[in-house]
Amino acid sequence: MTALQYDRAQPPTGSTAPSTARLYHAYQHGEDSKAAYASDRDVARRIRGLGLDPQLMATQNRAFLIRAVAHTARDLNINQFLDIGCGLPGDPGPNVHTIVETIHSDSRILYMDHDPLVRAHADALLHGKTSTTTVVEADLRDPDLILTQARHFLDFTRPIALLLSAIVHFIRDEEQPHALVARLVDALPAGSAMVLSHVTDDFAPLVMRRAEALLAGERVQARTRGREDIARLFAGLSLVEPGLVPVHQWQQPDAETAAIAPSEVHGYGGIGIKPAPAQNTTRSEQLGRNARLTTRSEQGVLVISVSGMVEEREHAPLRERVNAIAAESAGDVVLDLTAVEFLDSAALGAVLGLCLRLGNDERELHLLGGEPVRKLLRIMGFTVPLHTDLPQALAAAQGQRKRKRGRGRR
User: Fold this and answer.
1) In terms of DSSP bridges, do strands 365-368 and 386-387 run parallel, antiparallel, or are they unpaired?
2) Which of 28-37, 86-95, 212-221 has the highest mean pLDDT?
3) Does the record carry Transport as a key word (predicted)?
4) Calculated CA dihedral for residues 230, 234, 239, 240, nearest 10 degrees
5) Domains and CATH numbers, the chain
6) Concatenated DSSP letters for 178-221?
7) Closest CA to 247 of 28, 47, 56, 27
8) Other C-beta atoms within 10 Å of 6: how many?
């Protein structure tokens, strides 16, 4: 579906105050922007009055996004995309889902934006396609909610492309943009990619401060940043060539575009790939005097092993560490208690609280243990399945992953 099935001349009823989504559209289309209210077009005009060219900045950012999405789908072979701060659908396109669909027939695209107007436009555009492409309301400032919603639609056992196009500069410093981005990236599986673009103040800092003040007067918060600060958003990722560069220079398509000065575009963009964990992923740590906690990856499944005597003083630290380690994994967890010398009901209850946490994320806990653990489970009334050997527990975790993937494709 490429034809737009809604009337841009009649934006959905709502506040006429400028919004980031409509402003971006107004920057691209100027006076021809029918999806923007007069207030959006007025802000775009005043931004131009500062000596900036918002239309050039926005169109070159969009061109970067189109090239980056095509590269991610084609060259990185990723067919799942999470587009946060997606904004209004492109008119004319292409849009993210139409780009990816030409490369992957089994693509899944999840659009997110905090503006209900975006939802209204996108619902009209995506009518009849919600099994493979959908849109939900969410704010970058709430990454945990984003991840919860994303896990209902995307398969977190396979690579995902995270799109943060021209959105992070609307997060103020005190809102910790680097921590918000890191929270999302940490939850992605290895092999995932992040496409990010960000307005910079490297070339005209005083003008950018005036632009920020202008937008703040319209209740739109913005914070432009330097290249070094933007590069920190890619911490832990491997940058795709040519790295973090002015958006119009990222795999530039033609000589005319290459001739544009970076000081006209005022934006950096790049793609970062999340590397696979090191081969030796075994970690071991002491808990109190007599207990030890070991974590490792087995066939792509996180295995947490507890050994030694778990006394009362170890209950709280054991619970905290098991929960923290499990939060680092995107899939099911195997908890191995076969090497525990002493385990009372309070200690078992402490670690089994993990069941509720995993259940909220639609993951499962696969428990591995012997007859003492089985008796405790019976006494305490827990119905957690208990496996008797590691291959059985791993097979159950991997089978659950396949079933989830199958449900997601229907």
Assistant:
1) parallel
2) 212-221
3) no
4) -80
5) 20-273 (3.40.50.150), 283-409 (3.30.750.24)
6) HHHHHHHHHHSPTT-EEEEEEEB-SS-HHHHHHHHHHHHHTT--
7) 56
8) 18
